[in-house]
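INFO  loader      accepted 1 record
INFO  loader      residues=335
INFO  predictor   begin
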Amino acid sequence: MSPRKLFVKDLGEFQLIDLLASALGAEHDPTASGDLLISIGDDAAAWRGSNSNTVLTTDTMVEGVHFSLDWAGWEALGWKAMATNQSDVAAMGCMPMYAVVSLGLRGDLPIEGLEQMYRGMAAACAANGGAVVGGDVVRSPTFFVTVAMTGSAGDEGPLLTRDAAKPGDIIAVTGSLGSSAGGLQTLRDGLALDSEIASYLHNTHNRPSPRVAEGYALRALGVSAAIDISDGLVDDLGKFCAASGVGADLRADQVPVDDRLKRALPDDWISLALSGGEDYELAFAAPAETVTEAKKKLDATVTPIGQVREGSGVRVLNADGDEISVGRGGWDHFK
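INFO  predictor   done
INFO  writer      dumping tokens
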């Protein structure tokens, strides 16, 4: 009997990535030149440049999957398309440099909207670094925006990576979590909110602020292990632990959550903070004294939320130290 044929729907996103990477074969060796530092499996690939280590990342936003123009304006779409890549660069401790943009366009899309989208991209670059230097335009039945971006470390020092966490390290995050997913939920459900709360949640979802300066500062402080929180805290910490060959204990009661999210969604805020995704904050692991130094020196709030341990996987603990289950998973395109 022939083996069962597999389809994309049979695999999760990250199992599919692993399968495709292995399909490249042993003869495909990106390290052959000796300049490659990081290949598939981190927030960005990286290689040695003539004057600085360089990183490269890419991200795609598809209408109906990642965004709806009913919930976000054209300018915000451009901002977010750029900011998601800037966040990956930030997670490596680098500064955004150059971006190329590929568009898949339907014929009925308004030119004025596309111009506004590019103004949003320019605004994100002015705020967070980088410049659009090229791209491609194709006809597509589904509207999508793909950005690929390089970043520079500015020196030859070690980059922030997912595989450098060590048992005993403290896990900390920048900012607060869950508000982006809360913004999406309130937009999707048409929830009536106080105007100030609605503005905060919707803006957090549509115009995220990547932690570029914070990532660069963490690397300068000697932090070596970091990841950006795009697929949900628990899910991203799981990737972090898998790459480092460690486990983690996460204290749910210590996860920072804005009071406006708690007031808007009193039954959902902890689930959104743990697994909602699209926060574009940084999670990092470092010795306790380094985390203390980061709390003093970073502009963003830094909150310790757990500790790296021997073993594998992420255990989510309550205030009493008992393990609890997380009711929703992180983002996976094919689940």
